[in-house]
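Submission checklist for the structure archive. All mandatory fields must be present; incomplete records are returned to the submitter.

[x] Identifier: Dihydrolipoyl dehydrogenase
[x] Organism: Fundicoccus ignavus
[x] Residue count: 469
[x] Sequence attached
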Amino acid sequence: MVVGDLALDLETVVVGSGPGGYVAAIRAAQLGQKVAIIEKEYIGGVCLNVGCIPSKALINAGHVYHSALTGDQFGITASDVKIDFAKTQEWKDTQVVNKLTSGIEYLLKKNKVEIIRGEAFFIDESSLRVMEEDGPGQTYNFKNAIVATGSRPIEIKGFKFGQRIINSTGALNLKEIPKEMVVIGGGYIGSELAGAFANLGTKLTILEGSSQIIPTFEKDMVKLVEKEFKSKGVDIVTNAMAKNAEVNGDRVTVTYEVDGKENKIESDYVLVTVGRRPNTDELGLEVAGVEMTDRGMVVVDNQGRTNKKNIFAIGDIVAGAALAHKASYEGKVAAEAIAGQPSVIDYVAMPAVCFTDPELASVGHTKASAKEAGLSVNVSKFPFSGNGRALSLGQAEGFVRLVTTKEDNVIVGAQVAGPSASDVLAELTLAVEGGLNAEDIALTIHSHPSLAETIMDTAELVLGHPIHI
């Protein structure tokens, strides 16, 4: 291969190797395309390196530690329980993150996807230049491109990131467990990390701008999380407007406003989780003539195709929730569209999960969204307190809820708040995707004892013949 100023030809190029990019690259290769993937930082993207995977590892470590301290209900008392946070971080990085990222690199090579290291800039609609860290750069011509560059944390005025004012990446790489931490923003990321550090012993205060934390979930679900936070000494301040933070040595003073009244609070660290910004501002997409919104999002059709027919965009840089599984799904569709298949994106059964205590999970319609869509529905709710497995785990808080059509009991939505909600939701996601009705679920034999039995119990409740309630 000749390098330098002479442009090299590629068939399909994927920019970014996160959950959207690497899946798109592998699927494109499976369909017979010659594929190259360009990555400027780390294989696996934010999710695997400094996002959803390491955060879940930290959450699990918090659960283990907290369980050791609170085993009284099971007759277990542990004394002198200690945590070596350096070892926790080492385990997270070497036994979780590194194994997964090296696994993805193996899968890319296995599927004959060429990995190009460097930062990509579009020159026009059929070529781009990759700048290597220590190299002169290389120009590539391509037939098709899939842009999957993800997003980054938003830095807000008055909260400049540094050693004491950190974003989610900084929180996941801390060398110590904070004694006190203020979290600005109580959405998915803020609430998950607040829960992890609360379990590790940190005194937390969450400042949330809206009327409740995790505002995308329904109130009765969020109340369970708030109750758990309260039991661990977490303070939640809603309708709070964060003004600024002042660092003084190893302490940070946060000024915030509620109902026009100014307040101050001190802590060791301030974690800012107020959203993410699409990584499209330095790609040269405008030069390539790709249509974008004023917020930097790429405009695409139902196959992920931009106004330039050979350029596709997926993941956090297009409309919709910033979810790893959404990006992976879009990546498959884009790869298949390039191959000439009639695949289209359909978000009807896009699951959403928040890994708090307890976990919250939702798919399809809520009662409110069903009404907005003109659907006539019933809502049925079964508590985990009626489930033997949940009781045996000591985690009986929460419920499963089904949203079904009045006419024929078709499941158009579901919400789960409780133990392993992220896993329990899978069957319900299939039900929404497949257009199943409550009878389909009720007639399915569920293993006993299992948390999934709550789904069957809720379906029986829909049909009017519940056994366990």
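[x] Structure attached
Curator remark: The longest strand covers residues 138-147. The mean pLDDT is 97.
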